Amino acid sequence: MAKQSTRPRPGNGKARAKRDQGLLIGSIAIIVLVFAVVLLLLINQLNTGAVTVPTGSYAQIPQTTTAEGAPVLGSPDAKITVMEFADFSCPHCLEYHPTIKSLIDNYVSKGKARLVIQLETFVGRNYSETAALAALCLTKQNRFFEMYDALFNLQETRGYQAFTLDNMKATADSLKANSSDMLACMQRQEMVKVLQSSDELFKKLGGQGVPAVYVSTDGTNYSFLSDPNSGQPVSIPQIELLGLAIDKANGAEK
């Protein structure tokens, strides 16, 4: 008996193609959903997880505050004081931070200069204020300057929008500071007057933007350094100009 040929029924190919297309779309949808969930988990971890930050070595350097509460690093007998106005949300302050670190390493730690930090909050507003209050509250634990480094690190890696209470706690914990005491201090707004005093001094000195760096040889009268070539005031001096001023105050010319 002759074999009977079989032919695909009309429409079977279209049905199979439609089914395969549906399976492909479903698979893509599942992949997209899984990716979205993983992404959300990563973002949540970044926003609320423990913060890994470098810690400064300030234990051997005297730490005090001004009468108004601004943090001071360095020997009270230093012959020159460098005062920086900074905002933790300010990108230019972040760029200038290595200069401040160099100042600390080469001059402040050796007793040749003192460093005063005056915090402003106009760049990031509420974010800046949260960061500033957290750092100022750690002056009670002699941990301000470690927090100062850590918060600029946080701005660099996550942006100033990461300045939330959760991240302030995580950052303080990573520094092995007492975050509970810090948060209680922030809740009581104990350091708001310090910020107000800094802003008043900034305006009194005619400050226009941050960072702004002033120097004083008597601890009372502050002014910008002058460019040695043009004689013009320099609001953001690099370490070479700061070094010249510090050496001169200490009786040593380079």
Can you walk through the features of this model?
This protein has about 250 residues and is of the alpha+beta class. The chain has one domain (about 65-250): Glutaredoxin (3-Layer(aba) Sandwich), CATH 3.40.30. The protein is about 50% helix and about 10% strand. It has helices at about 10-50, 90-110, 125-135, 145-160, 165-175, 180-185, 190-205, 240-250; strands spanning about 65, 70-75, 80-85, 115-120, 210-215, 225, 235. Strands 1-2-4-3-5 form a five-stranded mixed sheet. The protein has a two-stranded antiparallel ribbon with strand order 6-7. Helix 2 runs parallel beside helix 8 (about 240-250), helix 3 crosses helix 6 and helix 5 (about 165-175) packs antiparallel against helix 6. The longest helix is centred in the first third of the chain and has 37 residues, at about 10-50.
